[in-house]
Amino acid sequence: MNAGLHIQNSVGSDCCGQCTCGEAAAPNPARQLKLISLLLDYPQDELFTLGKELRAAVYELGFDNEARQALHGFIDRLLAVDPMQAQATWSETFDRGRAMSLLMFEHIHGESRDRGQAMVDLMDTYRRNGFEIDSRELPDYLPLLLEYLSQRSEAEGREWLGHLNQILSLLAARAEERESPYAQLFELLIKHSGLQPDLATFRRRAANEERDDTPEAMDKVWEEEAVKFGPQAPATDACAPNRFVERSAGA
């Protein structure tokens, strides 16, 4: 099977989309992750033609009433704006600074060598289970990981999300602090894990953090990167992601 956030396969539906055709279906945890991965990913233009299918999928995948309300609200808010505006909002949320990064190993390992090896190991896990990536995303990109988990057992999905629970909790808290609707998606993933973290603690931490997505913070990062990759930069084998690229190229 190939990875990649294929919109039609994610939300294909025969429902009328008006949410009046009966009660929600039995829960389908794996496909629930597929839908969340789609909504968390960069909003491609095609997504904005599938409002009816997205709303219907929320019912057909068996989300509980609280989750259905959150997802319908998120979908309505996302699709109410021009695609370019939604895409700009996504980029401002997840591509400016590292605090909201959707690359999970960046939160765990930072820029250490361990991050490169972790990505190699994750790629090997994907391949052992017949999951070939057909996108340019790194293997620890959260929407891609969720798509992989949507092909696995419910127990495996819960285990993975349990391991990531603190990261997801902090992302939820940071998104809420920034008044981003994406906070709802992170909270749904936390709920999916079956754990109940103390979100209030993470919200206090997020409220006291210095933002890393301001112009001043971004300028500081660029200055640091210029020094890191300047004439006296370390040898290429000191850059963890390179190990992943070499391993993938030779696979």
From TrEMBL:
Keywords, alphabetical: Nitrate assimilation
Keyword Transcription regulation belongs to the record: no
Presence of the UniProt keyword Zinc-finger in the record: no
InterPro entries: DMSO/NO3_reduct_chaperone (IPR020945), NO3_reductase_chaperone_NarJ (IPR003765), TorD-like_sf (IPR036411)
Pfam families for this protein: Nitrate_red_del
PANTHER family: NITRATE REDUCTASE MOLYBDENUM COFACTOR ASSEMBLY CHAPERONE (PTHR43680), NITRATE REDUCTASE MOLYBDENUM COFACTOR ASSEMBLY CHAPERONE NARJ (PTHR43680:SF2)
Protein name, UniProt field: Nitrate reductase molybdenum cofactor assembly chaperone
Organism encoding this protein: Pseudomarimonas arenosa
